[in-house]
Amino acid sequence: MSTRRIALARLAMVAPLALFAVPGCKSCERDHDLEEREEREQQRDHFWRAQIVIAGHGQVKTVVEAFDCTSDGSGQRGECGPKLVRFKELAPPLMEARPAPGWRFARWDAVIRTPDGGSRARVGPMPDGRMYLDGFGYSDTGELETVTAVFAPEADAHDGVQP
Predict the structure, then answer these.
(1) Do the beta carbons of residue 126 and residue 108 sit within 8 Å?
(2) Residue 19 structural domain
(3) Where are the alpha helices (DSSP H) in 22-117?
(4) What is the per-residue pLDDT across 88-147, written as a single tens digit (0 to 9) for each?
(5) Is 158 a domain residue?
């Protein structure tokens, strides 16, 4: 066997082992670390303290079990809060406004009460559809968000969101 063939044969046997000795791609490691961090963030508990108020006739229900509040105009019943909701990022307490027969959803209102007794409006624009979701945090701040779903009789002029 020639010297060249022997050298090629040795190289063929050693080359696969060399692949394991090469350090990993730095950008691949950063991507992997970022993915792991994002997965940990998604598994963290989030908190939202809220209370539902309904003006008119309708229901506000969350997609996950948290709130299921109904009003016939004379009073509210069901799970209306105030309640501290603990949830994961990929399963937030998304609220849906459901009008009673003869009624339509008009708009959302919200006020956040701080532990010191003050109040402020929610940050960002108010949702203009039947679904409501506000910001939340990784800890319970003691703030209470009062979310009001306003329903109007269908005969009234459109006030807010179109049906």
Answers:
(1) yes
(2) 3-41
(3) 26-43
(4) 888 899 999 999 999 999 999 999 999 999 999 988 888 989 999 987 788 999 999 999
(5) no
